[in-house]
Amino acid sequence: MNYFTDFADQAVLLPLALIVAASLGLAGWWRGAGAWLLGVGTTLVLMLLLKLAFIACGPGDILRSPSGHTAAAAVVCGGLVAVLARQRYWALPVSFVAAVLIGGSRLALGVHTPLEVLLGGAVGIAGAALTAFVVGPMPDFRRNRIVLAAIVTVVVLHGVRMPAEAHIRDFAQRVALYLPACSAR
User: Fold this and answer.
1) 143: buried, middle or exposed (CB in 10 Å: 19+, 13-18, 0-12)?
2) Using CA of residue 28, residue 30, residue 32, residue 38, what is the dihedral sign?
3) d(CA 183, CA 176)
4) Looking at the whole model, is its pTM more than 0.70?
């Protein structure tokens, strides 16, 4: 399961997001690059805020830390369809499938609860929907280069892990000390 879940690690998806944005910009489609960055960026920032809030002040056993892997997989896969496919209506089903597959791997590994995976999936799917909504009409450009760059990025970085969760947890626990609402926990 680690092999599968590593496709959605931040060490893979953050560089991928930047490469796709740069590729869209170099292709001259600035609106597509902006929509991509808006969808992916909003999703990742929202997940960071949710993780900080739930780790610092959350209900504990029920919801400790929403699944960032699930959210990232959903927004990146659905977002790629939104910016690269002529049939954008596939963005949400692809996003949903990515959330189910990566979320299932997170559950199988025992690192998240079903509620954490559902919340991560919902945020990621919403990010993909935002991307599809904002992206606008697609100009003619060579999408195959962007697809190739994305595939190479994933292949090269697969298996590299970013220990973001440990840093987020440490920061959230420090912040919780200064929040009266969290100290009652």
Assistant:
1) middle
2) positive
3) 7
4) yes
